[in-house]
Amino acid sequence: MRHPLFRAVWIASLASNFGGLIQSVGAAWLMASIAPSAEMVALVQTSTTLPIMFFSLAAGAIADNYDRRSIMLVAQVFMLVVSLLLTIITGLSSLTPWMLLVFTFLIGCGSALNGPAWQASVGEMVPREDLPAAVALNSMGFNVARSVGPAIGGFIVAAAGAAVAFAVNAATYVGLILVLLRWKPPRPDRALPPESLTLAMGAGLRYAAMSPSIKRVISRCFLFGFGAAAVQGLMPLIARDLVVGGPVTYGLLLGSFGAGAVSGALLSARLRTAFSVETLARLSFAGLIACVTITAFSHASWLTMAAMVFGGASWVVAMSNFNVSIQLSAPRWVMARTLSLYQTAAFGGMAIGSWTWGWIAERSGVAEALLLSIVVHVLGILVGLRFRLHDLTDASLDPLRRWSVPNVAFDVQPQSGPIVITIEYRISAADVPEFLAIMAERRRVRRRDGARHWSLLRDLGDTELWIERYHTPTWVDYIRHNQRITLADAMIGERLRALHRGGDIVVHRMIERQTGSLRDVSARATDPSSGEAMH
After folding, report:
1. Which whole-number Å values give the CA distances from 190 to 66, 126, 316, 320, 448, in the listed order?
2. Residue ranges of the alpha helices (H) in 210-334?
3. Residue 314: which residues within 8 A CB-CB, separation 6 or more?
4. Nearest to 57, CA basis, from 202, 193, 196
5. Is the dihedral of CA 370, 147, 222, 136 positive or negative?
6. What H or E segment, with its residue span, contains residue 99?
7. How high is the pLDDT of residue 371?
8. For 309, left (φ over 0), alpha (ψ -120 to 50), or beta?
9. Which residues, in sequence order, are CB contacts of 178 under 8 Å at separation 6+?
10. Which end of the chain has the least Cβ crowding within 10 Å, N or C?
11. pTM for this one?
12. Residue 379, H or E segment
């Protein structure tokens, strides 16, 4: 909180979170009134979270290539306009169940656009050592609103109707818009043009797929969101059918869940010190098992509220744990995209889970749906026995900034290509096993950062000569590939340099040409001092 920019955005986001949760209470209870069907009620949460599953990666690609402040402003203004329209139509008593789902879907689209840009911007507002605390504060801020906002929303809906709840939500966007308008973040010079949306999305998917730690976090996050949706998606029905209450009871249950989440956020830093990342994940799954078991059998509001406190704490510990793991495992150039995949997994799991548990509740009952969700949480624990989450490391993911564009013998346009790169190493027979182990990691990093057709060759006439070879589609892709190298990645190059026998490591950069070209532009540029050998 000592960072003024983060503090201002956090306070404005807190007010916006209050409005969003008040709106959620109004939408869920309004749906329960105009379409008393378990499946339709559960679809309210699905319609809000499904856009995050569908559009979050595209939003992350946009946030990594363009000004994040502008993206957040567009998202906030869009949600303000949609909320105003929802308020007007509800006030005119013209809202139908499917219209309500459309409006909540549109608000979800705004959240999908805003989320990756906002979360990736946290790293620009605070230094790396404060990042875990900032993520925990964001979770706490949301859940402070969750602990009070739903109860306020329940009173507003009971006293004045859903339209007033929607109007309050619309008003809360204004403060965050004003703060964003005043924020003037530095705009780094971009030496390269932005990637196209398709290529940027592909790069984000490739980075996550080639990063074992990120891939495991995303998988567990999906399982957690899918199972936890049973509690959050069915909460209006828990209040109405199991506890036999009204909108105020529903608001109190949501408030209890939020109060537990605040407690979890306050304890998360201490828990991360005491337990490993994997242990925290397992404890979170176990906490949700306890929550849904008590809720399924309880008919007393106080006991269900106590279970919700426990469930909320488990929820925020898990999600902040996953979020911090992602943010400390990805460099800045792909941060928004990896966070968007995390969001896609979490909210996609919630969207699918909300519909699944609503469908089961419609046919078998709310308690039965809750108990069945335990299977998912048990699966989440069992998966961790085989695929553990890695503990956070201090490896630096800052860009290397040591590589410079090499000199070439003729003019090469940015879109010229394909570019073929070969790197020659001389390795003694005794060092071959270690060399091959290092090259296996090298291959993963190369492919993760955009290299294609990577291969390792050994000369049949010279047993010490090994050649690393890979392609990039164009010259600008080759430059972009090298600018993505981090200080942690550079350690691989240092280890290879230590094994190399002889003088400088020789690098050849070639452009592929067909024999039928009208002009001979084949060339081979060799520049061993360009710095390639260092990464």
Report:
1. 10, 22, 37, 32, 22
2. 212-233, 235-237, 247-274, 277-297, 301-327
3. 260, 264, 283, 284, 285, 286, 287, 288, 291
4. 202
5. negative
6. helix 97-125
7. 92
8. alpha
9. 12
10. N
11. 0.71
12. helix 366-386
Q: What is the pLDDT of residues 374-403, one digit of tens each?
A: 999 999 999 988 888 877 655 566 666 677
> 482 vs 25, which has greater pLDDT?
482
Give every CB contact of residue 41 below 8 A, 6+ residues apart in sequence. Answer: 28, 31, 32, 35, 236, 237, 358
Contact between 75 and 111 under an 8 Å Cβ cutoff? The reply is yes
Distance CA 382, CA 388 (A): 10
Q: Which fold has domain 419-534?
A: Alpha-Beta Plaits (3.30.70)
The percentage of residues in the chain with a pLDDT greater than 70, rounded to a whole number, is 88
Q: At what angle do helices 131-160 and 301-327 cross, to 10 degrees?
A: 140
CATH number of 4-187+196-386: 1.20.1250.20
Q: Do domains 4-187+196-386 and 419-534 have the same CATH topology?
A: no
The CA distance from 480 to 495, in Å, is 23
433, 392 Cβ separation under 8 angstroms: no
**Is residue 297 exposed (0-12), middle (13-18) or buried (19+ Cβ within 10 Å)?**
middle
Q: Is 389 helix (H, G, I), strand (E, B) or coil?
A: coil
Secondary structure (H, E, C), 440-473: HHHHHHHHHCCCEEEEEEECCCCCCEEEEEEEEC
- Alpha-carbon distance of 338 to 331, in angstroms, equals 9
Q: Distance between alpha carbon 511 and the CA centroid of its chain, in Å?
A: 37
What's the rounded Cα separation, in Å, for the pair 199 and 59?
Answer: 13
Beta-bridge mates of residue 525: 509
The enclosing H or E element of 242 equals: none
pLDDT tens, residue by residue, 54-94: 787 888 888 887 778 888 889 889 999 998 998 888 888 78
Three-class DSSP labels, 191-230 = CCCCCCHHHHHHHHHHHHHCCHHHHHHHHHHHHHHHHHHH
The angle, 0 to 180 degrees and rounded to 10, between the axes of the packed helices 197-209 and 212-233 is 100
End-to-end Cα, the chain, rounded Å: 37
The size of the chain, in residues, is 535
Predicted confidence band of residue 190 (pLDDT cuts 50, 70, 90): low
As given in the structure block, the two tokens for residue 427 are 């390795």
Q: Are 65 and 194 in contact (CB under 8 A)?
A: yes
8 A C-beta contact, residue 145 and residue 369: no
Token output for 201: 């999305």
The answer to whether 238 and 357 have CB atoms below 8 angstroms apart is no
- Segments making up each domain of the chain, as ranges: 4-187+196-386, 419-534
